[in-house]
Specification:
By secondary structure, the chain is of the alpha+beta class. It contains nine helices and five strands; from the N terminus they run αβββββαααααααα.
Length: 218
């Protein structure tokens, strides 16, 4: 269905359910073509997300659903509809790609998330904000978050599942390096987490490792 789009845009790479826009640095830009509970229907949307938290899959926090402009029900994608392939190709090229290509730098990504309805997933959740602050080199603010939450993160509630305990273990390690003033150790952690996420998402072949802002600050 999307082969003509891929042929026309050499910066697009299909990976499973995703169409990834290159280059990939500290965040990913992608179109998701996903199954639904109905055999005749699928969902189509674009998303952006940062990669330096350890992830197993891409969250769908920031982006937009694609509208089917060739259907009277613009939110509905059905395989049985006439011209469904053309409708999807048009939606990717006229809706998704222009939006994704506007987000070309890390600063663009942060600015987009800052005005998104779900900005709090990055800017207000302490488990994400502390990692962002470290990546940006705002270690004073990151340390303030650490001082407030370290006790709880270092001894997580027994009700948390394995993934939750692993998340808190990583945060505890980050806090320990913050409190020790271990700038190089913090940078190593970010690169390790990003590399793990890239491996989990199976996008090693399109990822281009680059320095974090904290590494570029004097």
């Amino acid at each position: 269905m999307v082969t003509p789009v891929l042929d026309r845009h050499p910066d697009l790479v299909p990976i499973r359910r995703w169409i990834i826009v290159k280059p990939v640095h500290h965040f990913v830009r992608a179109v998701l073509i996903d199954r639904t509970a109905y055999a005749d229907r699928f969902n189509a949307q674009w998303i952006v997300h940062h990669l330096f938290e350890e992830l197993d899959d891409l969250p769908l926090s920031w982006g937009e659903c694609l509208a089917n402009e060739r259907s009277s029900r613009r939110g509905l994608w059905r395989m049985s509809d006439p011209d469904i392939e053309l409708a999807l190709q048009e939606a990717i090229e006229t809706q998704a790609l222009p939006a994704l290509r506007k987000i070309s730098t890390f600063e663009d990504f942060l600015a987009y998330v800052a005005q998104n309805t779900f900005r709090h997933h990055l800017y207000e959740w302490p488990t994400s904000r502390i990692i962002l602050d470290v990546a940006l080199g705002d270690l004073d603010h990151a340390l303030a978050i650490s001082n407030k939450h370290f006790a709880r993160w270092s001894v997580p509630d027994s009700a948390y599942d394995e993934d939750g305990r692993a998340t808190y273990a990583r945060l505890s390690e980050l806090c320990g390096r913050l409190m020790a003033g271990d700038r190089k150790g913090l940078i190593r952690l970010l690169h390790e987490w990003e590399a793990t996420t890239i491996k989990n998402l199976k996008i090693e072949h399109v990822w281009e490792p680059t320095p974090f802002p904290i590494e570029l600050r004097s």
